[in-house]
Amino acid sequence: MELLYDGKSKRMFEIEDPFVLTVEYKDEVTAADGRKREEMPGKGRLINIITSEMFEKLEKMGIPSHFIERTGDTTQLVRKVEIIPIEVVVRNLAAGNITKRLGFKKGREFAPPLLEIYLKDDALGDPLINRAHAIQMDLATDKEISELKKRAHQLNVALIDIMEEMGLQLVDFKVEFGRDTRGNILLADEISPDTCRIWDPKTGENFDKDVFREGTGSVVDTYKKFYEKMEATK
Ligand code: ADP
Ligand code: UDP
Question: Which listed site, 32, 73, 175, 195, has its alpha carbon 20 to 30 Å from 67?
């Protein structure tokens, strides 16, 4: 296997099939654009299992993605895409960045859900952008941006359902999309407690990376608890 990309939380390998990549999830946890980082044994395995099951659940709900199959504890096969360098964030409740940037009270509801786009560029600190910026920068066409927004809203509805079944509340999430060889938009990257905020609606307990960002608990224990809830709904 040839290493194509060594990222903050995963490695992407090319394999014989030119349309397929092997993803290897690392044990590293990062926050604040990679400035805060730590090695957490067992984290890669948990995220690999969780994101694989998420994509499987979504597929059954009519939401296809790049996911093909899980091939090992920390590895999975995905369809190779050309990633659109836009991070699409959907917010159901205010938390994180938006509470600091715009002063929204933590936990304030957004109805309808709030959708934002960010430029995927670590060197620039992943800044918030708008449709006009994205088009000027040739990140995507106007039509593609409409498609990304539509898909992200549909995904939000499905993810809210998945979390509700687990007795949890989806606060917000980030997703990435790519283009396949025919130019069709495909949901890519990962969907996990590393990329979503998830709360227990009764206790307010966090089931996501905020325990690491805020130093309030163990990432591995938190992700294990999340996975146990997922298992319980099977
Ligand atoms: P980062 O780039 O932020 O360090 P990761 O460690 O998650 O993030 O690295 C994985 C990289 O692979 C990301 O840049 C992501 O956009 C990219 N990627 C995700 N899914 C696919 C795919 N199906 N095809 C090609 N690239 C992908
Ligand atoms: N998010 C992510 N990767 C990023 C930035 C954000 O997965 O590079 C996720 C984050 O986990 C949360 C949502 O997107 O679920 C919104 O994050 P926010 O904009 O509040 O940024 P933060 O303050 O968490 O960095």
Answer: 32
Q: Say if pTM beats, i.e. exceeds, 0.70.
A: yes
Q: How far is the CA of 174 from the centre of ligand 2 (A)?
A: 6
How many Cβ atoms sit within 10 Å of the Cβ of residue 171?
24
Measured in angstroms, how far is the CA atom of residue 55 from the centroid of ligand 1? 16
Q: What residue ranges define each of the domains in the chain, with the CATH number in brackets?
A: 2-79 (3.30.200.20), 83-232 (3.30.470.20)
Q: Is 103 exposed, middle or buried (0-12, 13-18, 19+ CB in 10 A)?
A: exposed
Query: Which atom of ligand 2 is nearest to 120's Cα?
Result: 8
pLDDT digits 0-9 by tens, 66-93: 999 999 999 999 999 999 999 999 999 9
- In the structure, which protein residues have their CB atom closer than 6 angstroms to any atom of ligand 2? 87, 89, 96-98, 126, 172-174, 195-197, 209
